[in-house]
Amino acid sequence: xxxxxEGGFLRLETTGLFLLFLCTxxxxxxxxxxxxxxxxxxxxxxxxxxxxxxxxxxxxxxTKAQYVHRLHQRYGPVVRVGPHEVDISDITAVKEIHxxxxxxRKAPFYQNLVPNTxxxxxxxxxxxxxxxxxxxxxxxxxxxxxxxxxxxxxxxxTAIASMKREMDxxxxxxxxxxxxxxxxxxxxxxxxxxxxxxxYIKDLEGLAAKGSIRSTFPALITIATKLPLPIxxxxxxxxxxxxxxxxxxxxxxxRDFANNPAAAKPTLFRKLFEAGEAGLSDDEIRxxxxxYIVAGSDxxxxxxxxxxxxxxxxxxxxxxxxxxxxxxxxxxxxxxLRELRLATARFxxxxxxxxxxxxxxxSQDDMEL
Length: 369
Fold this sequence. Notes:
The chain has helices spanning about 1-35, 55-60, 65-75, 90-100, 110-115, 125-135, 140-145, 150-170, 180-190, 200-205, 205-215, 220-225, 230-260, 270-275, 280-295, 300-315, 315-325, 340-350, and strands at about 80, 85-90. The protein is mainly alpha-helical. The protein has a two-stranded antiparallel ribbon.
């Protein structure tokens, strides 16, 4: 019996040593490839970026932009911030990366931001992007947008009236809460707006924070439905609720359009329903509608809030803008709003609507900037 036990322990010990040897061998292989054969190894950056992007993720919780800016001040316009990630702060290189040409495709970051769906915003498929962009470009043309201008105008007047009422009552106004970006986009995409908060609207208002969590910790979001991780579980649940609502709203508009096309409200996707088989499927329209809602709700409200703040902080710009608006003709157009265009351009340089670096992938191993 003792000899059998001794033999069993020896076999377990041998198996353990063999597994340890394999793990050590894999670790050495990984280290060798990461340090000596990774094409990013020759790029400047903190030494720990060769091994992990944990420091970058730690600063995501606090001040990622400032951290990366300090790295550029120390290492130059091209900095390695992780084993497979480089940050570039150079105008010429940025133009090369973002020009309309194959070579630099979207990174998986965008699929993590809007998960479990494929649309114009997050797709990594170039042909899919070209096809859908061609179909969706017409509804966003100047002539097509005129058909929905009255709807937008009504919401703008409602927001301004609400601000004026609060100014009269309190002497100040919290403009952020009056920008009804989600209501405008609901009307333009789904021909429907609730006019009051429900769970769907609460999910939309949390998109910015939850989107950051999804894109930074995609693995935790994937397993959140099975593990008791409250913040990650709620993030996954909110994404599913927005998807479900988008599907229901598209189905409802399709039913109304089929029953009485003439009475159906104009939306950005109406031509897709009219196109029949030449357009997009119901699920594809749902995916694009979801992308429009995600991109146009809190982003719009935040942008307009900081635009008002920027103009209020610059007395000279505010006076020029008010003077221009007071002198507008009744039939004014975009060309008559010179000061408004200048104020908007200055604002976007100081307060970009998405205060993060644009993340792109590479479709080739050998690219030169």
